[in-house]
UniProtKB/TrEMBL annotation:
<feature type="transmembrane region" description="Helical">
    <location>
        <begin position="98"/>
        <end position="117"/>
    </location>
</feature>
<feature type="transmembrane region" description="Helical">
    <location>
        <begin position="371"/>
        <end position="389"/>
    </location>
</feature>
<feature type="transmembrane region" description="Helical">
    <location>
        <begin position="138"/>
        <end position="160"/>
    </location>
</feature>
<feature type="transmembrane region" description="Helical">
    <location>
        <begin position="223"/>
        <end position="241"/>
    </location>
</feature>
<keyword id="KW-0472">Membrane</keyword>
<keyword id="KW-1133">Transmembrane helix</keyword>
<dbReference type="GO" id="GO:0005886">
    <property type="term" value="C:plasma membrane"/>
</dbReference>
<dbReference type="GO" id="GO:0022857">
    <property type="term" value="F:transmembrane transporter activity"/>
</dbReference>
<feature type="transmembrane region" description="Helical">
    <location>
        <begin position="166"/>
        <end position="184"/>
    </location>
</feature>
<feature type="transmembrane region" description="Helical">
    <location>
        <begin position="253"/>
        <end position="274"/>
    </location>
</feature>
<dbReference type="InterPro" id="IPR036259">
    <property type="entry name" value="MFS_trans_sf"/>
</dbReference>
<dbReference type="Pfam" id="PF07690">
    <property type="entry name" value="MFS_1"/>
</dbReference>
<feature type="transmembrane region" description="Helical">
    <location>
        <begin position="20"/>
        <end position="49"/>
    </location>
</feature>
<protein>
    <submittedName>
        <fullName>MFS transporter</fullName>
    </submittedName>
</protein>
<feature type="transmembrane region" description="Helical">
    <location>
        <begin position="281"/>
        <end position="299"/>
    </location>
</feature>
<feature type="transmembrane region" description="Helical">
    <location>
        <begin position="70"/>
        <end position="92"/>
    </location>
</feature>
<keyword id="KW-0812">Transmembrane</keyword>
Amino acid sequence: MSSSFYHLLLSQSTTKLAYSLYTMTIITFLYQETGSATLASAVTIISMVSQLMSSSTVPLMMEKFPLRRILLLSQISQLTMYVLIVVSLLMIPSPLNYFLLLIFLSLISFFNGWSNPSRSALIPEIVLKEKLVSANSILSTTDQTLLLFGWSIGGILIAYFGHGKVILITIALLILSIISLFLLKTNATTIKKKRKSRIETLKEGWIIVFKHPTLRTITKMDIIELFGGGIWIGAVTLVYVQEALGQDEKWWGYINSTYYAGSIIGGILVWRFSKTINKSLIGYIVIGSIGVSILTIIYSFVSTPLVALILVVLMGPLYQVRDIAQSTFIQNTIDKETLGKYLASKATINQAVFSLSVFIIGMLVDLISARFVYLFSGFLLLCSGIYAYQKLFKKQQIEVKHNQNL
């Protein structure tokens, strides 16, 4: 890997950790100050809506600025908001500062929404094609590790240092991220682009999403899977632990931690076998989807807590195989000029569908049971895997045979 890849890794790692610490800080501060669970939960809702709005603006940013500069703008804008949060906490009285915190939260989430599509689109510029699986697995594993670390240590840091000092830690992390981005060098060449209207720019990614024959299949797969994606949010896993496993909140924590641990193990395994996976990306997308679906269906019938933990750990590698193989396949399929716009449009769809999924899954848990939603999600994953096999894998095999006969 090039030094630029490691600068990107450091930058995104510190940003992810800062974002998780800051989110925990705002949630706990609002809850401790007001005692309102509704106000505290508004943090998650505002973040999701802001990132959804942000994704729709990414193509316009990519038309004007290089990817590295978009990441820098994202980090510097977030840093400014963090500084304003500290000022708000120290100098502005309640309840006015609650209102300001939610405004700053929405802006931070908006600017953070530029990061993921830009990062994914930047990877092919700084990593050789044959190293993409390895690079994606390293980034994914690091993301999962920092999510686990951030949510595990965040509460301890808040209890020990207080809300204001934890925000100062996030500011230090973002400064480190910005320095790392300044050191990053890309292989991108400056191309004189034909001036496009805003409508044309916004449509470009959506046209690829819905009209590119292969990527249209990927989009449909994501939509099918994400309609059951809400099964791993905290509220649903808590109900499952209590209803299906007959355990208390302690096992809820075990399930959540094990989920991240399985993803970390999966990322390491994908990195270790990256060359093998790179030879058949579509095959591993299918294996991952069908494998996760089978384990999720089994998980829906389990009553023994230890068996549930084992199944969650086993899901981790399969989730990672599917996601990393899919990311690499997309990066290999689209040219670098339009990759970011496609990823931004795809992220908008994914966030919208996932938000709807959270609502549907929550309703099904209340109306039927937690077991049913895992069975329902497993069935959707199975449909997605079979669809990928029919539309992608079989088509690829036909093309391979045709080329061999030429």
